[in-house]
Amino acid sequence: MKNVTDSFVSLGHWPSAGGFGFNTDILATNPINLSVVLGVLIFFGKGVLNTIRNSEELREGAIEQLEKARARLRKVEMEADQYRVNGYSEIEREKLNLINSTYNTLEQLENYKNETIHFEQQRAINQVRQRVLQQALQGALGTINSCLNKELHLRTISANIGMFGSMKEIRNN
């Protein structure tokens, strides 16, 4: 095992002509390193650049869609405000119509009530009049019957027949 370890240690001591080693000359190694780095960047960077370009295009499309969505949102908000204002106006208009309709209905009911009261008063007055007249007639008939005897009764009938006869003659002429 000592031989294997010695062979690794001795690798670092090989002369540069036949082995592998690090070149510390900056002027000789810099263009090589730059070309390797540029090659790696170009090889792997193409995909990254395409991804960045696609991302930029997608970002611009997303911004455009966002602006369109904001414009639509503003339009919808304005329409909603208009509907809200119109809705409130319609509610106020319906409320006033309902109040006016209720007022008119109450006024009609008041008129019907007054007409009914007036009708009932007239009916009660007429009933009282009929009873008073009926009682007056009964009282007059009672007075006439008590004061009138047969002879006076026959004379009154004859006078009335005479009056009807003269009325008949006047009509015929």
Automatic annotation (TrEMBL):
One MF annotation (Gene Ontology) recorded for this entry: proton transmembrane transporter activity
Keyword presence, Transmembrane: yes
Cellular component, GO annotation: proton-transporting ATP synthase complex
GO biological process: proton motive force-driven ATP synthesis
Lineage: Eukaryota, Viridiplantae, Streptophyta, Embryophyta, Tracheophyta
Keywords: ATP synthesis, CF(0), Chloroplast, Coiled coil, Hydrogen ion transport, Ion transport, Membrane, Plastid, Transmembrane, Transmembrane helix, Transport
Subcellular location: Membrane
Pfam families: ATP-synt_B
Segments traversing the membrane: 32-49
Main location: membrane
Descriptive protein name: ATP synthase CF0 subunit I
Superkingdom in the source lineage: Eukaryota
Family designation: Belongs to the ATPase B chain family.
Membrane topology: Single-pass membrane protein
InterPro entries: ATP_synth_b/b'su_bac/chlpt (IPR002146)
Entry coiled-coil feature ranges: 52-86
Function: F(1)F(0) ATP synthase produces ATP from ADP in the presence of a proton or sodium gradient. F-type ATPases consist of two structural domains, F(1) containing the extramembraneous catalytic core and F(0) containing the membrane proton channel, linked together by a central stalk and a peripheral stalk. During catalysis, ATP synthesis in the catalytic domain of F(1) is coupled via a rotary mechanism of the central stalk subunits to proton translocation.
Taxonomic source organism: Vitis amurensis
